[in-house]
Amino acid sequence: MTASSDTHAKPAALTVACLCAQWCRTCDGYRTVFEETVLGLRDAGVEGMWVDVEDQADALGAVDVENFPTLLIARGDAVLFFGPVTPHASTLARLLGAALADQLGPGATIDASVLELPERLRRLR
């Protein structure tokens, strides 16, 4: 592959994982919002995952989710965002829009267990 073709390579898909719990009523209401928003951005390269923190605890490893919903946004193995969000379509759309425009990056130190999360979540697919 030449240097010029590298500059035109399609960027890795953007993965957004919603970490939730089956018993969480907020997550129940948010799931439709999440799925519709991600579906609407599929052509832009956004892939979504709904991850139950109890049913899929092995994939989370040492990651401790205390608030719901919590989102992980990653491009390949690079974590762009990890944290709880308000359960609104507009919040999700703003975050994903910023990530797609390469305007989103970790603002705070991210725990090493979270940095390993994109790879572990890919195993769920």
Describe the structure.
- The chain is of the alpha+beta class and 125 residues long.
- It has a single domain (11-122), classed as 3-Layer(aba) Sandwich (Glutaredoxin).
- 38% of the residues lie in helices and 22% in strands.
- The chain contains 6 helices and 4 strands.
- A 4-stranded mixed sheet has the order 2-1-3-4.
- The longest helix is centred in the N-terminal third of the chain and has 16 residues, at 25-40.
- Mean pLDDT is 88; it is low at 1-7.
Outline of this structure?
The chain has 125 residues and is an alpha+beta fold. Helices cover 38% and strands 22% of the residues.
Chain-wise SSE layout:
Blueprint: H1 3-7, E1 14-20, H2 25-40, E2 46-52, H3 57-60, E3 70-75, E4 78-84, H4 89-100, H5 112-115, H6 117-122
Parallel strand pairs: 1-2
Antiparallel strand pairs: 1-3, 3-4
Annotation keywords:
single chain, 125 residues, alpha+beta, Glutaredoxin, 4-stranded mixed sheet, globular
Number of helices, counting only DSSP H or I runs of 4 residues or more:
6
Domain unit count: 1
Please report the first level of CATH classification, the CATH class: Alpha Beta
Gap between N and C termini, in Å? Answer: 29 Å
Count of β-strands: 4
- Which CATH architecture is right? 3-Layer(aba) Sandwich
Q: Give the overall silhouette.
A: globular
* Contiguous runs where pLDDT drops below 50 for at least 5 residues: 1-7
How can the largest sheet be summarized?
4 strands, mixed
Approximately how much helix is present in the residues?
A: 25-40%
Strands of the biggest beta sheet: in what spatial order? 2-1-3-4
What portion of the residues fall into strands of 2 or more residues?
15-25%
* Series of H and E elements: HEHEHEEHHH
Q: Class by helix and strand content?
A: alpha+beta
Which homologous superfamily in CATH is the superfamily? Glutaredoxin
